[in-house]
Automatic annotation (TrEMBL):
<dbReference type="GO" id="GO:0070740">
    <property type="term" value="F:tubulin-glutamic acid ligase activity"/>
</dbReference>
<keyword id="KW-0436">Ligase</keyword>
<dbReference type="GO" id="GO:0036064">
    <property type="term" value="C:ciliary basal body"/>
</dbReference>
<dbReference type="GO" id="GO:0005524">
    <property type="term" value="F:ATP binding"/>
</dbReference>
<dbReference type="GO" id="GO:0000226">
    <property type="term" value="P:microtubule cytoskeleton organization"/>
</dbReference>
<dbReference type="GO" id="GO:0015631">
    <property type="term" value="F:tubulin binding"/>
</dbReference>
<keyword id="KW-0067">ATP-binding</keyword>
<dbReference type="Pfam" id="PF03133">
    <property type="entry name" value="TTL"/>
</dbReference>
<protein>
    <recommendedName>
        <fullName>Tubulin-tyrosine ligase</fullName>
    </recommendedName>
</protein>
<dbReference type="InterPro" id="IPR004344">
    <property type="entry name" value="TTL/TTLL_fam"/>
</dbReference>
<keyword id="KW-0547">Nucleotide-binding</keyword>
Amino acid sequence: MEKTISVQQITEEKNIIQKKAAICLQNCNYSIVHDVAISMGMHIVKPEESWDLWWCNIPMDIKKAKHLKKYQKTNHFLGMSEICRKDSLARNLNTMAISFRDDYNFYPMTWYLPSDYTKFQTYISQHKNSTYIVKPTTGSRGTGIYITKSPKKINKYEHMICQLYISKPLLLDGYKFDMRVYTLIASCDPLKIYVYNDGLVRLATEPYETPTQNNVNDRYMHLTNYSVNKCNKMYIDNELFGSKRRITTLSNWLHTEGYDDKKIWNEIDDVIIKTIILAYPFVNRTYQTCFSGHKYTPACFEILGFDILLDENCKPYLLEVNHSPDFHTDTSIDKIVKRELLIDTFNLLQLNKTLKKFVSGEEKWKTQQQTINADKNVYKQRTLRCKENFERQNNLWESKNMGNYRLVFSEKNAHLYKHYFYCNESAIYRHTRRTSLHQESEK
């Protein structure tokens, strides 16, 4: 017997769909984002149409960002390059390490060439047997990366990042590995950071050996990039024992092997928070400039991909931060993890038409008040009350709809990191001041 559907049910389903967000994907080349949006009832629209969310691979142009309506969102913050460019990340981490040497020691010793070449020369003169990994300041997927035990062969005039290679990593089944840890910045005013409980573990495809002159050029042994290792005939596509696995699988392995997995993840969360603090002054300053009209909901969110390596003592090291983590789905694990990540992200952000309707009503009310020359304080007080109400509702919604996310930073634990924010702001001011004085002296 066929199941009959009432007119009321059809109407209710239509209303639910109508409340879903309209999303523009013109600059998104990931089919999974399109598929997830459709599966969740969102409308795919063109740029010239009315949209609620603009999803793009690179941050929105600042001129366009300033014209966002009060209910619209985009999936990138401006200013995130301070931690997503390898050279900027190195500069900022090295600066913070001056004041907090023991707290910002989660990054391999790094030199930005050519400006740090003299310091690099001093180091290699005192450490004859070290191994170094050299990376271009921009780029991804392992392009241009090489490892060397002969630092004198490094071109001192080329703009590169040179790092001390972590030669004693934790091994999984005898292979070197790193983790892609997905992190969501849900808002920057106030700053709210979530970390996803699942992600990707990328393994090298040749058993690991300590770097020597004979094996240092073996990219399949020393690099964990999927784009590199998928080309090796030894690459295995299997969730449990293959060359790419889920973070949940790794966590179970760590627990089974007797490692303190809770301690490891607490330390990784701490690394993520301290790294985001480096970009915060730039992000928040730009945000306040471009999106001052967004009183009720954040105008931006950001999914970052943190690449983390564990050494043999399970100490986490930050390798890099990706502002547009890859959403291609080459493997079955990619499809599962990234689909779940996107679904939980869209749910957490509460993307629907409710805010648009509310903002339209408030704008009409404001126009009416201006027509009758009402006291401006009335509107300010009403706006403040509405903002507080929306914040309460958003916090309640997020607490019930985190999915597989965990909240690692909010106003509740901000006091634990207050001194880092203060020091970072001061360091940025000093750097900006020195740059300005230098420029003035050259005139």
